[in-house]
Design goal:
63% of the residues lie in helices and 0% in strands. The chain is mostly helical.
Amino acid sequence: MTANNAAYTRERALSLLKEWTESESLRKHGMAVSICTEAYGRREGERLGLSGDEASRFAETYAVAGLLHDLDYERHPTPEEHPFVAIAALREQGWPEEVLHAILAHADYSGVKPESHLDKALFACDELAGFLTACALVKPTKSICDVEPKSVLKKMKDKAFARAVKREDMTMGAELLGIPLEEHVANCIAALRARAEEAGLGGCS
């Protein structure tokens, strides 16, 4: 984020998520998407040659988009309202337009297409983070540390497993990022393992 957007931090975004969302599972989903999206922000920052505070602020924009992407889903779950109610509220509060654009672009019915790297990363991580959470929760340990990319790809073919998760969005997300699906899955698993307790997905020793 630029200096002008310094007030729009992940802490403020997390506070908003908790204010708008009572469901623990939805809060955890927001955190998981944020962690995965932020990891891509860090990668992109490195590619752009950013360092220090500049790199941190850049990645924080990705983290914020992840935390806020489903802000209104609990209160306004219909396609007529989600994510448009949240966008109106966030715009009134002055959140950066790049974050709002990414939130709109994650909803394939919004009419807004993923354009920036942030847009693409958020879209790519949304469904996958949910699917990885489901994969972790069926493990005896309920830990992301016991989830491997190949087993995730296998479960993707099982239409009865986590059936609400759109497989085509996970595939399209990897395509948007220009990487193989297995690499995308591995990247997100690694990001979640690094912050497993924060994501509510067990601890990794």
